[in-house]
Design a protein that fits this description.
By secondary structure, the chain is an alpha/beta fold. The chain contains 15 helices and 13 strands. A seven-stranded mixed sheet has the order 1-9-8-5-4-2-3, sandwiched between helices. It is globular and about 85 Å long. The site of pyridoxal-5'-phosphate has 15 residues, from α3 and α4.
Length: about 400
């Protein structure tokens, strides 16, 4: 059993990870050097898309994705209401509007039906949908093929927010499609925050199959700078009298940001990515144990519903608890569990209910999102946990809810 406090998520860093970082610290490069490219190559080899663009975190990955797809004022992005703030905010950073789609109440995943409803709602409001940002919440992929058919038929681009789902493999047409291969989306975003499947401290990446999109994101993550003379347009200032490119020169066709990931973080990323398989396998074992133990508490408590045709990487273990029927207050249960060494979290208050979005778009009626939000509680899940830890969490939860485990 793990001694001490169990947070809802935590990184696992071993001596080989530390050695990899120390190796970079002793070398020439601390910022963007060869280890960034090596990490991008490792992501491509592991996940199967043609391109990987490393960046400073999953939020900037989403921002870069929206910018590279050319989103701007007058455009609309469909975003499922149950997600982290960043999925919606990325559209707003580019000046695009957000229309929130409802989700399945038992998985919190957007579906082709709720996407269709959101598209109709957007059009009724005179908005112009251009992109769908679909979210692989908790590590599960929804009915992505159906969502993709619908989006493509309407000429929309697709961002897969895979920040929860590194390590998830979908079974598609008799083959395997890892999240990050961009089998359905134009771009897939990843996060390497310490609660996620692998950690680089802060960190993120965008996977792509279109080299032009990848090139745009590489430029935009570095202030919008073009250093390659082949891409310059201002010959008068770019080249010397001898026709040679000026050695100091770079051009900025449009402004970008400093969203770079550095060599120190990428050394950790390479070392962690090499352990993706065992990390994910351990998460799956723990989820199986949770399923077994939580199912015994039905109907008041159930594990979140599994979506088919995939081996999920499982970022989160969510119990759906009928707090109303049990007449228990979720906050009180969370505080009591914390006092006994168990950290829990709520993923998420529907983003449409955040004051900023309520002010901007008014209240949106999304019954599936509300039903999920009312019942969800994320329980500790990270690879260093033992089966005994799962048992301890479920026993304490059952006791707090007045149920017999
Ligand atoms: C679904 C989702 N998208 C994006 C992000 C942003 O990732 P980061 O924390 O690396 O900025 C998160 C972070 O929790 C997330 O949960």
């Amino acid at each position: 059993m793990t001694s001490g406090f169990l947070p809802y998520g935590r990184h696992v860093v071993d001596q080989d990870d530390i050695d990899a970082v120390v190796g970079v610290l002793k070398g020439e490069w601390l910022t963007t050097g060869p280890t960034v490219e090596a990490f991008e190559t490792a992501l491509v080899e592991t996940l199967g898309a043609r391109e990987a663009v490393a960046c400073s975190n999953g939020s900037t990955a989403l921002h870069l994705a929206c910018a590279a797809l050319g989103l701007g004022p007058g455009d609309t992005v469909i975003v499922p209401a149950v997600t982290f703030l960043a999925t919606a905010n990325a559209a707003r950073y580019c000046g695009a509007e957000v229309v929130f789609a409802d989700v399945d109440p038992d998985t919190a995943l957007m579906t082709a039906e709720t996407l269709d409803e959101a598209l109709h709602r957007a059009r009724r409001q005179g908005m112009r949908p251009r992109t769908v940002s679909t979210v692989h919440l908790c590590g599960q992929v929804g009915d992505l093929a159906a969502q993709s058919r619908l989006a493509r038929a309407e000429g929309l681009t697709i961002i897969e927010d895979g920040c929860h789902a590194l390590g998830t493999v979908q079974h598609v047409d008799g083959g395997d499609a890892p999240v990050g291969a961009c089998r359905f989306g134009d771009l897939t975003t990843l996060s390497f925050h310490p609660v996620k499947t692998i950690a680089t401290g802060e960190g993120g990446a965008i996977m792509a199959n279109d080299p032009d999109l990848a090139g745009a994101m590489r430029r935009l993550r570095n202030h919008g700078m073009v250093r390659d003379a082949a891409g310059w347009t201002e010959a008068g200032q770019a080249f010397g009298a001898d026709g040679q490119p000026n050695p100091w020169y770079y051009e900025m066709p449009e402004p970008g940001w400093n969203f770079r990931l550095n060599d120190i973080q990428c050394a950790l990323g390479i070392s962690q990515l090499a352990k993706l398989k065992p990390f994910v396998e351990r998460r799956r074992q723990l989820i199986r144990r949770y399923d077994e133990r939580l199912s015994a508490l039905a109907p008041a408590v159930r594990p979140m519903r599994r979506h088919g045709d995939q081996d999920a990487g499982w970022h989160l273990s969510v119990a759906l608890i009928d707090f109303a029927a049990l007449r228990r207050d979720r906050g009180a249960v969370m505080r009591a569990l914390r006092a006994q060494g168990v950290g829990t979290q709520v993923h998420y208050l529907p983003v449409s209910r955040q004051p900023y979005y309520r002010r901007r778009y008014g209240a949106t009626v999304l019954p599936g999102a509300d039903r999920w939000y009312d019942r969800c509680l994320s329980l500790p899940l990270f690879p260093a946990m033992a089966e005994d830890d799962v048992d301890r969490v479920v026993d304490l939860l059952a006791a707090e809810l007045g149920l017999k485990p």
